[in-house]
C-alpha cells in the first residue's frame, strides 16, 4: 500500500497549510485532510505590572514654615536598591529616615527649597516605613 506524501507550508500570518503532493488512485476516495489550526497569538505585555516594575509610592510631610507647604517624597522599591526622590518646599532643612527590617536604617538631610534623589542600597532588607524625624 502506498502512502500519501504531505508537505506543510506556513503563511506569513502563522497558519499552517497541508498540501497533498502525491495521492495514488486507491486513496483518491479518502476524506480530505483539514489544514492545521494556527496557534493562538501570545498576549502583549503592557503597563508596569506586566513588566515587573513596581509602582512608585508617595508621602508628604508638612513644613513648619511656610504654612501650607510640604516635603514631598516618592520612592520605588527595587530588589537591591531604593531610589528616593524628594522635593523640599520648606524654609528649613528636613531629614528623611528609611526604616528597614533586617537591615540598618538610613537617614539623610535635605536642604531647604531643593529637590533631588538619593539612591539607597538595601542589602537584602525590606523597607518598613519612611519618616521625617527632627534629627538624624
Which characteristics define this entry?
1 helix, 3-stranded antiparallel β-sheet, elongated, mainly beta, 9 strands, 4-stranded antiparallel β-sheet, 136 residues
In summary, what is this structure?
This protein is mainly β. The chain contains one helix and nine strands. The strands form three sheets. It has a four-stranded antiparallel β-sheet, with no helix packed on it.
Give an overview of the whole structure.
The chain has 136 residues and is an all-beta fold. Helices cover 3% and strands 45% of the residues. The protein has one helix and nine strands. The protein has one helix at residues 48-51, and strands at 5-10, 16-22, 57-62, 70-77, 81-88, 94-101, 106-110, 115-121, 126-131. It has a four-stranded antiparallel beta sheet, with no helix packed on it. Strands 7-6-9 form a three-stranded antiparallel beta sheet, with no helix packed on it. The chain has a two-stranded antiparallel ribbon with strand order 1-2. The longest helix is centred in the middle third of the chain and has 4 residues, at 48-51. The model is unreliable at 4-23 and 44-52 (pLDDT under 50).
Strand content: 35-45%
SS element count, helices: 1
- The coarse overall form would be elongated
Strand order across the biggest sheet?
Answer: 3-4-5-8
Helix content: under 10%
Succession of helices and strands:
EEHEEEEEEE
Secondary-structure topology with pairs:
Layout: E1 5-10, E2 16-22, H1 48-51, E3 57-62, E4 70-77, E5 81-88, E6 94-101, E7 106-110, E8 115-121, E9 126-131
Amino acid at each position: 500500500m502506498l502512502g500519501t506524501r504531505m508537505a506543510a507550508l506556513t503563511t506569513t500570518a502563522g497558519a499552517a497549510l497541508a498540501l497533498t503532493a502525491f495521492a495514488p488512485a486507491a486513496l483518491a476516495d479518502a476524506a480530505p485532510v483539514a489544514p492545521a489550526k494556527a496557534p493562538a497569538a501570545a498576549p502583549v505585555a503592557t503597563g508596569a505590572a506586566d513588566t515587573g516594575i513596581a509602582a512608585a509610592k508617595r508621602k508628604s510631610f508638612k513644613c513648619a514654615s511656610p504654612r501650607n507647604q510640604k516635603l514631598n517624597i516618592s520612592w520605588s522599591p527595587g530588589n537591591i536598591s531604593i531610589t528616593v526622590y524628594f522635593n523640599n518646599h520648606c524654609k528649613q532643612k528636613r531629614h528623611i529616615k528609611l526604616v528597614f527590617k533586617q537591615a540598618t536604617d538610613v537617614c539623610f538631610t535635605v536642604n531647604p527649597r531643593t529637590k533631588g534623589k538619593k539612591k539607597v542600597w538595601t542589602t537584602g532588607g525590606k523597607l518598613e516605613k519612611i519618616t521625617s524625624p527632627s534629627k538624624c
